[in-house]
Structure prediction request, 116 residues.
Amino acid sequence: MGQIAMDAGLSSNPGFYAGRTEDYHDLNSEIIERVYRGVVADYGEKAGESVVKMVSGLPRLTASRFLSNLFRLPRADWDWDERWDFEGRDKKETPTPTTESIRRGFLEKYGKVKGV
Prediction:
């Protein structure tokens, strides 16, 4: 997964982005799409569907949170669980306009296809 992240333009270390808020330079819909394509190419459609579900479900799309959740997917047999992201966080957290903007471009392409 680290190589897929790096090929998409991300660091393979979620900690690199620790403490940062949503930032288009760190993570944007184009980077997410490259990650998605890499996951589908290496792991198949089921894995890609989990990435779509994860992007749709994360309340905040920071690079650190995206990567932390992404790296857990293979160990969970590609079954994303929204509870992963709420470990130690407020469950009432709402998406920011930046998160919605980052998410929108990706989900417009892939969310409809995957039923998200």
User: Anything to note?
Assistant: The helical segments are 2-8, 29-43, 45-57, 63-72, 97-114.
